[in-house]
Hints:
Layout: H1 2-12, H2 17-31, H3 35-42, H4 46-54, H5 60-67, H6 73-80, H7 84-99
Helix pairs in contact: 2-4, 3-4, 5-6
Amino acid sequence: MLTTALVENLQRKALNPIEEAKAYELLHSKFGLADVQIASKVAKTRDHVAQRRRLLTFSQELQELVSRDTISTSVAEAIASASRETQDQIIEPEWKHLDNLVVFV
């Protein structure tokens, strides 16, 4: 029943790719569902589910940039394939920019 509620929420809400990845990971780790089973439940391909879950292996900085829609998942995947030193060189200017943002509520 809990898996059904989680799947319904996944389909109803507009989640960013990182939130989507975390929900898929929860279905996998807590309920033992394989990517193909998750894909079937959420009407996505197995590759889509696997790609989203793979986002959680990226650095926190890279995940944050994807979460904020600063970079696309495909750009994040390309950056993640580089060495950590190269990743830092690419991410640092964007990350510093985000740290300087002031949010007014």
